Task: structure prediction
Amino acid sequence: MRYLSPAFRFVLLFTVLTGIIYPLAVTGLCQWWFPHQAEGSLVRAKGRIVGSALLGQTFTGAAFFHPRPSAAGKGYDPMASGGSNLGPTNPMLLARVQAAVARFRRDNPAFRGPIPSDLLTASGSGLDPDISPAAAYAQAPRVAQARGLSLILVRHLIGQTTQPRQLGFLGEPRVEVLRLNLALARLAPAGPATAPRSRPAM
Amino acid sequence: MTFNGVAQIVIFFLIVLALAKPVGIFLSRVFNGHRTFLHRPLRWLEALCYRVGGVDPEQEQRWTQYAISLLAFSAVSFLFVYAIQRLQGFLPLNPQHFGGKQVSPDLAFNTAISFVTNTNWQSYAGETTLSYFVQMAALTVQNFVSAAAGVAMSVALIRGFARRESKTIGNFWADLTRATVYVFLPLSLLGALFLCSQGVIQTLRPNLPVRTVQGATQVIPGGPVASQEAIKMAGTNGGGFFNANSAHPFENPTPLTNYLEMLFIFVIPAGLAYMFGREVGDTRQGWALFAAMSALFLAGAFFCYHFEQRGNPLLARMGIATQATASQPGGNMEGKEVRFGITDSALFATVTTDASCGAVNSMHDSFTPLGGMVPLVNMLTGEVIFGGVGAGLKGMLLFAILAVFIAGLMVGRTPEYVGKKIEQKEVKLAMVALIAAAASILVFTALSSVLRFPAHGYWNPPGPAAANVANPGPHGFSEILYAYASTTGNNGSAFAGLNTNTPWYNLTLGLAMFIGRFIFLLPLLGIAGSLAAKKRLAVTSGTFPTHGPLFVCLLIGTVILVAALTFFPALSLGPIAEHYLLFSRHALAAVKP
Amino acid sequence: MNAITEPASVYPSHAGPPRRLSLADATILRRAARDAFAKLHPLKMAANPVMFVVEVGASLLTVLLARGWWLGLAGNGFTFQIALWLWFTVLFANFAEAMAEARGKAQADSLRKTKSETMAKKLAGDRTESVPSSSLRAGDVVMCAAGDIIPGDGEVVEGIATVDESVITGESAPVIRESGGDRSAVTGGTKVLSDEIRIRITSNPGETFLDRMIALVEGAQRQKTPNEIALNILIAGLTLIFLLAVATLPPFAAFSVRAAGAGQVPSVVVLSALLVCLIPTTIGGLLSAIGIAGMDRVMQHNVLAMSGKAVEAAGDVNTLLLDKTGTITLGNRQAVEFLPAPGVTEAELADAAQLSSLADETPEGRSIVVLAKERCGLRGRELPDAAHFIPFSAYTRMSGVDMGRRRLRKGATEAVAEFVRQEGGTVPEDAIEVSRGISRGGGTPLVVADGPRLLGTVHLKDIVKGGMKERLAQLRAMGIRSVMITGDNPLTAAAIAQEAGVDDFLAQATPKDKLDYIRQEQAAGRLVAMTGDGTNDAPALAQADVGVAMNSGTMAAKEAGNMVDLDSNPTKLLEVVGIGKQLLMTRGALTTFSIANDVAKYFAIIPAMFAVIYPALRHLNIMRLATPQSAVLSAVIFNALIIIALIPLALRGVHYRPSSAAALLRRNLLIYGVGGLIVPFPGIWIIDVVVRALHWA
Result:
């Protein structure tokens, strides 16, 4: 009892202090100072929320830039975040990538050379919002053709959307796919071939 | 390796180096009960804690009393966390209406042990299992206090070396309170606000379904993430709010948050190394430990970085780039985020397993064999590299004791370390700790490698336990070995392909965490008690020098040799075999270009 | 000044060659080989967990082999080879220990021969009765005349005699034993050469010095030292870890066999071989031999250590208390000059100095008599009967002679000056100044007074032993502080201290000062060693961590110390420290070597075991060993042979030269750490070549 009594008291005390007061205080301050970020950096287009700037979402069809393959649920499902967890010698990984390479070569006949390493590999979160600039440029001819835009314009758009390394040296340069696709859509609404499942939401 | 990649690693190290001394001095003052700049704003809170807890912070404890206090606190914490999980359906802040269905008894047991032992192994996916209340009142709390208890034990061990002819090693409740009030609360508060400014969410709203650009439905999750994320890193806990952990953009949205999270992991452990030197009255002793840690850290980081950047030769044959260019990262990007690329993923994997953190910003399971071996070996060596607040410095001191004992005889004197003779009792306790850790990893891995379960059994799906692995060949073995190394080391990171949410794995992993925390660390408290009671020997030129480069090399050698000798056979059947397979002509032939 | 008990031998001290036995002595080898088999008894092996594991492994394989032969199974040849080499491993380790013990036993035998039964002349009232020596009890008093063997340990209570102690010390020169003072102790088994003495027996049968000595030499009461126990725990712990690593291999391999769809789980034979290769058999096999050999080396220096712990402690010593006289300086200080006070002739001074020294048997006293003869032609005379000799004491710090009203004194400056004033005289400032000058020069001023008249000063000169300065510098490099203990005044002490190069000195030291100094050093965390002989040294000897008593000293001193120097040579302390260090270094070096060896063994055995499962693992076979069988066998053979190869090193101790700990560590880490990593690679490779050539595997 000499030890259990303080143990109980301290557990209760810290539950209140660090488990209730601390997170609620942080919540209050964050909602006050950074409401946009605290709520999930939501992105609006045409007056409605279409997603989060930080979470990738599925894009299909020739007229959109495609994100990386996602292992989260059926693809970009934030309720099932995670990677493929396939090891480097796993035949499933090799088969998946091989199929993706074939598909990519078919859809982007203009592209030559090694495929950017991020484009056909699944991210760790399954929600990666970014692709590398090279991965975007690799898709540019296809998108330009599908949208009827000049390649130069599309490449320019990619350049504008590219975020450099943070503080000049941190991380990698990247292109946020949602932002790029939204910018693209503002420039040139997609043709009928681009949205297989529903009306373009612009 | 790219210039930028090398620069990121080197700059990261330099920042840690620069922080070690000021943080060490701060910690040293806090735990000696001296005034710091936080005294004025927070002294009342410290006093309040003692009053509510009903303890006298000046009352010194023997090591046994210290250990019993720790055990009592951990036991009560365990019961709390278990109960809150199981009762989440009846508790507030549960917008997703999770209940006992999501948290089975074995999972609740595993999770409770996991968070109480500062491991934060997660057999579950946070976003679909636990309510906000559980995340806050059970898990965030343990993130604080299990880390504070870990720091307390380190401080007690340091006192063992620093004190002379003393029966006591401090007061657990005072150390626990000071660590929480002066270290973790302020650090987490600042960290949480900064993380939120970069995009980490902090909201109590329920999950938000939205329609995506192409008209699909996507659920934008909510939750008090920033507040948990900050302490998750600073307390080297590593238990993510989301399944994807620090790879999740809502936990780790930018390269800057990533850098900061890594710094949070290292800052207190690095400070503790300095504090050790300061407390024993010779800062060179602390720097020697720091140097050994640094060398191992940098070696691991560059080794991992090298193999990840070299990439997967099988994918290269298919036409995937492995060479980094200015506009794409190259290397092995499976399981990694674009914003972090190869460098920050490899660095994070090294950092999180150097310390006993276990947060991941990339999926270690998808690393190349030798790249993934770095985190594995880091844990097998006992996470002595800076080492997290839960285990680190203590592990390194354990190896220092062994190194001094084995090699110290070679200068012709009874081995001594920082003025304390290393004798029977210390060697015995150190061996108990070492054997417990090795036994936990080896025996549980062996059992899970060969056990078979009957149909309709409770413990695991029928068939071999090894069938829970996600990858064939030697990689599957690596997954099991990694799981027990991670839990025994109280790390919590995973080769996440292994399905561990079965009663068998939840139980054995839970036991491994228990052994890793208590059977490994209690002997160290015993060492602290024994050392505190000893005289401090005078230092002469005949004293075994434990502050020079020679000792640093010796210490590194001991760490590597002990781990290598214990685990080399296992490693050779896991990552080493996989590496040779991956790079053999035979494996390449299997894949058509 | 205080009396010197024995003319100390000059540095370098004689290192007791009479007892030295060659490493390769044929009788010892034969005896050791026989004992190696006797030690296979499991109960004896159990004391050594590492070798016990090897024996269990060897037994297991032997049973498997018998079963294999019975059932006519294949692969018996390999099992036989491995089992054989495991048995060799155990035997080699036993042989090492037996070798070390055999040397001690040979010495014990020669000692035991001297312990023949003698008849003692026991005093009973006024008569003596003849009784067997074994019936003597402590407290009995016996008579011993010339030619008698002293029947037991005791104290001379009456008389003076020369005694031959060569049985104990190996030193043939007779020594003087007399009642009272610090030369009263005699040892049973030694022989009276001249005169007759009465001895009070101080020990019961079976507890005599000789008995203890035999037991110590033989190792019968050998207890493991603290350090050895700690090391044993370490290697037992490592053995347990390797046991775990090997025991969990079959499940790991079973998983891998299933995953790879090829190969098989390693056999019990291979696993046993791996286990034996990994556990630290080298140090495990040699550990006790090292300890015994260390004690033995102390013995070869004619020092009797009461426990191995004392030898270990000698290695840890931080501070050496060295008596100035006999240790740092040659025992005999010489009078070199008479410096008369104003108004006194040299002859007058010489005469008084000689008179006061006639009864003074100390070397100083004698040298004054001699100098007076040389300088002034004064012959040594008999003192008149009425003269009363006042001996020197550490408290009065004067000696002299009273002849009627004439009171002659010589002694320390302050003491004599005080005496002169008490007698009503005055002390000329010049004389004091002369004394100071002598002191500053490292000499000892001996002021002579005739009642109230101060006659002048005799200059006594201390002669520091040759090589002492270098020796002390070596000690300093090893981190050992030397402290000179002297009865001299601080000025004299400082000058000699400087000349000899000691780090500190304790001037005008009383026994209590010594004790206090030791306590003070110990409180500061230092371990102290000292030598001593007198009864008043006993408390300090007991307090010191290492107390070396002179064999010539009193029983009390010998009881208090934890070592006895049979040569009674105080300089021996330095060698004892070296031996202690060498003992610990040898243990550390072989432990490091043993553990470092394991790396190569893994590279031999892992690919041999696992290449059948994952052929890609053949890349780990960096030694390019021919076949899996030859690889395993070569590793086991290497493991066994290395024990034999290291026996000489274990018995002789690693090379030791006094230097700083950092330098020692660098050197030994390079040789035994890095060397231990590298050596087995070519070693195993060569054995593999031989094994192939002989078609063993």
Notes: The beta strands of chain B are 202-203, 208-211, 217-220, 223-224, 416-417, 420-421, 452-453, 463-464.
